[in-house]
C-alpha cells in the first residue's frame, strides 16, 4: 500500500511578510494534518510561535528538530502516539 501525501497551505502567520516561502505548499505524511513544524530563516522571533490550529508551530530561525521536539515535550504539545510514525515529513 502506498502512502498518500497531502499538500497543505500553512497558516499565514507562519512566515514574516515578504518571505518567499510564505504560502508555499508543504508535503505532509499526516492525513490528519496536525502537528506541523515550520522551520524558516525568515523567522525573526525568539520564542516558538504556536499557530492558529494550536498544534502547528513556527520555530525561530536556527532551531533544529531536536530543539523543537524538546520544546514540544516540555510544553505538552507532542503529537499523540498514533501520529508519531507519520511525522517523517515534518517541515
Care to describe what's here?
The chain is of the alpha+beta class and 91 residues long. The chain has one domain (6-80). 11% of the residues lie in helices and 15% in strands. The protein has one helix and five strands. It has one helix spanning 65-74, and strands spanning 6-8, 26-28, 37-39, 49-50, 57-59. The strands form two sheets. A three-stranded mixed beta sheet has the order 3-5-4, with no helix packed on it. Strands 1-2 form a two-stranded antiparallel ribbon. A hairpin with a 6-residue loop joins strand 4 and strand 5.
Q: Spans with pLDDT under 50 lasting ≥5 residues?
A: 85-91
Structural class: alpha+beta
Number of domains: 1
Biggest sheet overview: 3 strands, mixed
Would you list the SSEs in sequence order as H and E? EEEEEH
N→C terminal distance: 24 Å
Question: Would you summarize the structure shown here?
Answer:
The chain has 91 residues and is of the alpha+beta class. It has one helix at residues 65-74; strands spanning 6-8, 26-28, 37-39, 49-50, 57-59. Residues 85-91 have low confidence and may be disordered.
Comma- or semicolon-separated keywords:
single chain, 91 residues, alpha+beta, three-stranded mixed sheet, two-stranded antiparallel sheet, disordered C terminus
Q: Which helices and strands occur, and which strands form pairs?
A:
Elements (H helix, E strand, L loop, with lengths): L5 E3 L17 E3 L8 E3 L9 E2 L6 E3 L5 H10 L17
Parallel strand pairs: 3-5
Antiparallel strand pairs: 1-2, 4-5
